[in-house]
């Protein structure tokens, strides 16, 4: 392990905070730089399953996460008449993989992570305007005129990552950026999200009990709208309303996206529209009850983009989470993917034998190779789930297929998702329960040694 190395993390999201916790446990120095004046964990709910929960156990956050989340045992999607058009059964998850998938509000998950980050490691109001790197190190230039120096730069600053833009600008000048990475950043949907204040106990509970999440959605007859409710353990309800903008796209360098992403601005008109939608929980109620119970500060609007970038690193700079793969939220894979990125990158950094440019490049290459196929699978899954909510003949066909999908094929798909259960190699390993065992863990030290041998041979030829 490299003893003297400093990692600069740009962005204060879930992926960045997870990486910070892992670096803390690995005794690797780091600093986090966030453009906002404070972290405002807006959003609705987020689901975590077997693919990341072993890491939660390793980091000592699982018990708090479980106490503040509800078990996902099923998910129902209805049409506007209230008939169930799609039912997803997760009742076998604990038996097969050893732990339940659970849904938790984003604000609560942020708090669990933030509470474990030393305050002196977090720097707010630090807007990156330029990055520099060479064989000796990296430098961040901030809008306030200050700078920060380190050995490695991690861009975990979201879909419209400044770090990625700086990296790609230089690669473009040098003619080393693939054409696919220059293409516009498409989005086909807009999402309104929020979390209510707590309702009286027992107001909205799953038929199996309050420990389970009442996870129900509605799909409009024209497939242009989908809205979802999730019951939470504190008796609040997380909600989401998605409207499709078929065929729309937006360039990745548009600064207006920074103002639209995860903020309450421009949300009022969509909020007024959403009030009249019928409640997925049934009865004569509408979404107005949940919107009225949600403070305005907890309602936000976001463009739902989709893209997986080809270039994840160069020199001493590497990307993580939405900065290199932005997923549609329909399948709940975005947060899990960002955290799995963090595990793989932490393992690669821990296994580095030196801080040389060559070893850093090898570590980044090993990280991308570990994550690429899994990230692509998650991207494809999220994209296909998103198609269900879009007004097209393919949507109708996909919904028809999903309605008739045999349980055995559904379970096989879940087995595939749960196969990748990474853990931090430098922490005591969690022994998985359940009878479906995970894929073998990658030995990053061996992978990197093999790459160093190959690298040396190439340079001696």
From TrEMBL:
Similarity comment: family membership: Belongs to the paxM FAD-dependent monooxygenase family.
Keyword field: FAD, Flavoprotein, Oxidoreductase
InterPro entries: FAD-bd (IPR002938), FAD/NAD-bd_sf (IPR036188), FAD_mOase_fung (IPR050562)
Organism domain of life: Eukaryota
Protein name, per record: FAD-binding domain-containing protein
Span of the signal peptide: none
Lineage: Eukaryota, Fungi, Fungi incertae sedis, Mucoromycota, Mortierellomycotina
Domain FAD-binding: 5-380
GO terms assigned for molecular function: FAD binding; monooxygenase activity
